[in-house]
Fold:
Amino acid sequence: MEWKTMGYRIFLAGGSGAIGRRLIPQLVAAGHQVAATTRRAEKAEALRAIGASPVVIDVFDAGDLLAAVAEVKPEVVIHQLTDLPAGLDPNKMGEAIIGKARVRDEGTRNLVEAAASAGARRLIAQSIAWAYAPGPEPHAETDPLDSGAEGGRGISVGGVIALERQVLEEPMTGIVLRYGHLYGPGTGADAAADPALHVDAAAYAVLLAVERGAPGAFNIAEPNGHVATDKAVSELGWRPDFRLAV
Structure:
């Protein structure tokens, strides 16, 4: 795989997801070289069409992932992996909780190890903004996560805690973006409950985090009463009203 000298070499895990498809054009327009993953070979050409070099791989295959990241030699690794049912089938969303938790724990561990082995300097990962423990709102990033949650929420929050710990404890610049509920192209929703977040603005936060931002967590959501977003606005220069032109 050959790379140009402009911009950063970026390994994007989860390139064919809703955020990945809106993020790749932004990264490419900024001059970065992007290798983007998908689990399904039939999605590779779609990634190539928007400017990425496709990598067909399963994040749970630690050996193949290690080799793939090593080939790219990325300066930045972006974690946008999730595990959602086809068409966001509501009848399968319950079982998807377990799949997402596995991605956040085991998948993150494999990706972090591959990033560290390849010498990446910055790691940016997707998290969620509704995992905080009950308490006064709006929640700041320093508020505790809901480690005492039970049932399906307990599984979900447990996965989030595992993801964030692995990203933030690694000796590189680790940034966690705690997204609100997504809506917009590719999400299956035209609106979302608070804290809400348009998929384009979610991708824009990643673009900004590629080049700026100290290690830590950032709430990424439209103005709301549940989570405070002033840190992302002031430190990343993020705008909740950002939209792609097309």
Summary: The helical segments are 18-29, 44-49, 62-72, 93-118, 151-169, 199-211, 230-236.
